[in-house]
Amino acid sequence: MARGAPLWRAATAICRGRSVRGLPRITAIGAKSFSVDASSRTDLIKTLRERTGAPIKDVKEVLVKCEWNEENAFTELRKKGLAAATKKSSRVAAEGLLGLAHFEKGAAVIEINSETDFVARNDLFQSLVLSVAKAASTLKASVLSKERSFMFGNFQLVNVKLDHASITRELRVRDAVSEVAAITGENVRLRRAFYISSQRGIVSSYLHMSPASGLSRLAGLVSLEVEHDQEGSHSETLKSLGSSLAMHVVAARPLFLSKELVDSEVLEHERNICKAQASTAGKPENVVQKMVEGRLAKYMEEVVLLEQKYVADETKRINVLLKETSKEIGKTAKIEGFLRIEVGEGIEK
Question: pTM higher than 0.85 for the full model?
Answer without folding.
Answer: no
